[in-house]
Amino acid sequence: MALNKTLRPGLIQVRVLNMEESLNFYVNVLGLNEVGRTSDGRVMLKGYDEFDHHSVVLREADEAGFEYVAFKVDSPETLVNFKTATEAFGYPVDEVPANSDQPGFGKRYGFKLCTGHRIELYAEVELADQRPMVLNPDPWVEMPRGMRAQRFDHVLLYGPNIAEAERYFTEVLGMYAPEICNTPDGKRFATWLTSGNKAHDVALVEYDKPGKMHHFAFLLQDWNEIGNAADVMAKNGVKRDVGPTRHAITRGQTIYMWEPSGNRIETYCGGYTAYPDNPVRVWDVDEIGKGLFYYEGELIPSFLQIVT
Amino acid sequence: MALNKTLRPGLIQVRVLNMEESLNFYVNVLGLNEVGRTSDGRVMLKGYDEFDHHSVVLREADEAGFEYVAFKVDSPETLVNFKTATEAFGYPVDEVPANSDQPGFGKRYGFKLCTGHRIELYAEVELADQRPMVLNPDPWVEMPRGMRAQRFDHVLLYGPNIAEAERYFTEVLGMYAPEICNTPDGKRFATWLTSGNKAHDVALVEYDKPGKMHHFAFLLQDWNEIGNAADVMAKNGVKRDVGPTRHAITRGQTIYMWEPSGNRIETYCGGYTAYPDNPVRVWDVDEIGKGLFYYEGELIPSFLQIVT
Amino acid sequence: MALNKTLRPGLIQVRVLNMEESLNFYVNVLGLNEVGRTSDGRVMLKGYDEFDHHSVVLREADEAGFEYVAFKVDSPETLVNFKTATEAFGYPVDEVPANSDQPGFGKRYGFKLCTGHRIELYAEVELADQRPMVLNPDPWVEMPRGMRAQRFDHVLLYGPNIAEAERYFTEVLGMYAPEICNTPDGKRFATWLTSGNKAHDVALVEYDKPGKMHHFAFLLQDWNEIGNAADVMAKNGVKRDVGPTRHAITRGQTIYMWEPSGNRIETYCGGYTAYPDNPVRVWDVDEIGKGLFYYEGELIPSFLQIVT
Amino acid sequence: MALNKTLRPGLIQVRVLNMEESLNFYVNVLGLNEVGRTSDGRVMLKGYDEFDHHSVVLREADEAGFEYVAFKVDSPETLVNFKTATEAFGYPVDEVPANSDQPGFGKRYGFKLCTGHRIELYAEVELADQRPMVLNPDPWVEMPRGMRAQRFDHVLLYGPNIAEAERYFTEVLGMYAPEICNTPDGKRFATWLTSGNKAHDVALVEYDKPGKMHHFAFLLQDWNEIGNAADVMAKNGVKRDVGPTRHAITRGQTIYMWEPSGNRIETYCGGYTAYPDNPVRVWDVDEIGKGLFYYEGELIPSFLQIVT
Fold first, then answer.
1. Which residues of chain D have a CB within 8 Å of the CB of B240?
2. Which tens digit of pLDDT belongs to each residue from C273-282?
3. Is the pLDDT of residue D24 over 90?
4. Distance of CA A240 to CAs A231, A303, C245, Å?
């Protein structure tokens, strides 16, 4: 049965400058598992608590940055429905065949959002070989490593016309915005969107340059794992951006850091249980410092300026 | 638009033996807020992090125990659809008018599940006066109290024929079971069901007597709050059942204790992010000791025997 | 028997600008208990986990800052021995009679350290009325409040000639330095000194102006209490200086904040178990950024410049 | 200068039934580092946060249990003083030459306490090769493993006439008892003794059989590490005795488990900062259930009965 439901952001592909250096970070420091390599040399990774084939793909390139994020939907019928609705919304859609550039993945539909980002949708993916136990399971198969990242959690994108993008995610993909931020003249400055009970799956900030990524984020268990991540960060010479701190927005606890290529990574935990019937939390843009960095109470300059 | 989606267990009514003693526990120890009293003397309570009018109702009676749990659905249309589908499933449905015995609540539909429990559905409820901030919000309005329970989280019901009940929750209410437990001959012994990304909203255990409650549970933030709850429990002379420990099932961290009337209360946190497309975790009934109490590795005798 | 042992820094007196505003911070936010007021209007405070009469005294004045810190020694004989040894070290000593300006305190000996700070020594003090239980005790009598500060922990003083001051604390008071920081030409830039197994009871940084205080610190239980303190700080509009973060020096976890008068307060936890026979940890002054702020990996400018 | 000060319990030797199985537990599960083997096949171990050559020695034997615990004192002069005082107390003392059966250790003096346990004293030991950093140090050299035990912390001994043993530790070794437990007729039933600011270095329980060990304990960082230890315990099939729970006595947080040979191991954290001038906490023996297991509020039967 097609519930026309988006499940989660299930795949992100980003560019890195040096694969070896990057893998040391993503595997040994952040704690992802390497799933394998594609024929063109990209590296597939996943968190220890994810079932699907892989969730993060690194591509070596001359410039760091975001390539695309793909959302898993609940069924092949929904995938077709969403394709049709995306086209009706006004975005031309292309098709990526199953098991082509993303091993294990079924057919994907892709399009360019008004913000300049490529977004993809898919309904089917093989299970990973290394995945959580399901028969009388232990919490983990092997003791998690480094920062002990559990899964790819969300991405924050910067680009123009996020009001339209928010409309796309809510009207077409059935997501909702637990929190929004408006300028004094009532325009959307930022929005946090989710397809379930997590406080956010994707967030958007209004920005004049298209297609930029602020950060992508990995789920940790709790504030203590934030502390562990901070220790691991410092011990390994990973450059910190902000934190450990709390967001008032989503209420999550967090550290932002720079992976070796300059992409901003967030390790994130907490956040309230979001429901679509709860009132929307609304931020005035001049309170966004408190909203982003509850402890600091003000914006960290790098935070709104550096994107990849 | 009717998504035909269940949001959450939003209301539970239980019987207590002595209201004053109970309120001391629920308000001062567990940390719920008293919302007010009904004309017939029941007391309405809620967690500090809940928006809706109230989520827990205590009724003074000669015997402790469960009266009903009500699930909030995403729209009035869904409510009607679910009523129709419930009847089609074979359960006669009655209607409770809006703002009758549950102040602030819209119309509810109720029925008796095969397990002997009364279940209700509703789509509308007023917001509580004391609710989380929404304009440039702080994480809490007033510092949480006692065990700092955030919200009513789930209920575990004991009764006959849970296989049928599981079918009801999945086929009619659109929930799914991230974990199940089977007997050696393949019969369902227990099932954990959710309508979203929480590991469970309701759980069922096969039991010969109908209409029994094993426990109802409140969400805490994390393992440290479990530690705090344990300190508060001991300091206030609340009788412990089990914990602090971890469930392998749902992976949550937990304490079970007895409120003054003998109803079992769980304070719960953690648990994985559940998705309907992930494989179902399956427990053999002879491994359920590990499943329930991962640290103890075996069943605590009181746990399967005492229900209210 | 005189063990000639210093027990701990047991009393600190500081100046605040506005008593009412200060008490709101120290009592409601930091979580100290008000013990009472002296006849000249100073306010006596203590942590819920301290036995002695009081440990912090606030005096209203036109300028914030440090007045003196007093160390408790193990016996009246030791007090006399330390008085004699202090004079022999070259510091003239004055005597403050018992139960004079510090109610409940026995006789104190005071002197001016080369760094310009007044230091006092005492051996006797009455127990506080509100003190931890001793007969079949619970961990706390009343649930701790606000940031849940347990006790006055240490003070960091800035002034000239700390090499001599370090000699005083070690040779006269029997303390030792688990960590030191030297300039490239081998001069002492900073030193952390303890009389027991805490990583530090007092610390000193070389500074051209005499008699300055960098901060005084209160003990929290662990990293989660640091998180709670940060939430309470933000919720109450307390201005943060640095943190939550970890010191590599002492290994403690910390937040620095400004109380309403501009004195810097630290909430501190963790730190290794210090022993006098363990090797001294040595910091190069150009690594002190990492040493002070392990996560940031660099000095926060305010940190070395603002003192009271 | 001889301060006549005991520093800590620095060495314990215990018997295990099967060395290979034991090492898997102590190294891979508990997280100690193997230092090396003696010529007679004993294995030397230490926590990652200990500086001295080793702190735990396992000897393969037909029966598990305690062999001896050795206390490090602050100087060779103190060692001689303590030897003399021990003999004066009435215990014949033998001498173990430096670098004989305990590689790296200086001369040790040993004797049999009235409780039937061998106790040793030493002043000198070489530093371990694998030890904490001291030049611009990180918190750890390699990320801790398994339960992440930091150091050998204390031992609890069972035997007759602990009142005399307490007198020995206080009068000869200069320790003090922050907590004691008495029978209704005022006899000492249990005592917790420390040489510094830890809540205990050694504890004693009155027992008719001599020379028994209840458990020996390792320091963890905090309650979260207790949670991690519990996960690691369960994942590795280590048999739990009690916990996670809190002691009211010492206020520490704890798990007790059985290592493969049946010796009881505690992983411990927290506990208040002890001072010799603070009032002694006194337990009535019929409250010892609460004292030992604050959450359970009663004795676990195995706890007073099983010793090795």
1. 295-297
2. 999 999 999 9
3. yes
4. 11, 12, 12
